User: What shape does this take?
Amino acid sequence: MAYVTLAGAILSEILATTSMKYSHGFSRLWPSLGTAVGYVVAFALLAQTLRSMSVGTAYAIWSGAGTAVIAAIGMVFLGESTSALKILGVLLVIAGVVVLNLDGAH
Assistant: This one.
């Protein structure tokens, strides 16, 4: 169940961050509200995850997955530049999360 709540936290964080891009500095109401609600939900679900998963494991997965997916969304859908160096950076983030989790989720 911890991985289900963690996946929800990751999805909420991704939606909140994407909404923030469309809020134009919080000058647009609906994307701004989406950002706020998304982050509240993300942190609530992350807090629930921490009841049964170590903070290091949960946070590494949450932040790493969110970073990798947001970077990919930026490059694929939002017209941000793509380079071998950026792709390497995303792969290193993913590798870092894997290495941190080699000991298992306690």
